[in-house]
Design a protein that fits this description.
Number of helices: 1
Number of strands: 0
Structural class: mainly alpha
Oligomer: single chain
Largest sheet: none
Distance between the termini: 131 Å
Length: 92
């Protein structure tokens, strides 16, 4: 070993534990980021599914409303017809 290298190796050896700590910290942060990204993808997928379900429910509601409107219109038409028939009956 060269005498001029010795003073450099001591500070480097002192830095090894700090470098290991930084590496572990970086790995831990990467794992947390990966978990967070996975969770985000899962939540986005759930949101997409919920939005699709909402669209289906809205379509069913519109269909039911149309059917209700048609039934009410048919009912009103039959009531008018009934009133007209009663009027004819009582006019005789």
């Amino acid at each position: 070993m060269n005498e001029s290298e010795f003073p450099l190796k001591i500070p480097l050896l002192c830095l090894l534990p700090q470098v290991d700590d930084e590496r572990r910290s970086a790995e831990s942060l990467k794992e947390q980021m990966d978990k967070t990204q996975s969770r985000l993808k899962s939540l986005k997928r759930q949101l997409d599914e919920a939005e699709e379900e909402l669209q289906r429910e809205k379509a069913l509601k519109r269909k039911a409303q149309r059917e209700l409107d048609e039934l009410q219109e048919a009912n009103e038409s039959m009531l008018r017809e009934l009133v007209g028939l009663r009027k004819i009956r009582y006019d005789f």
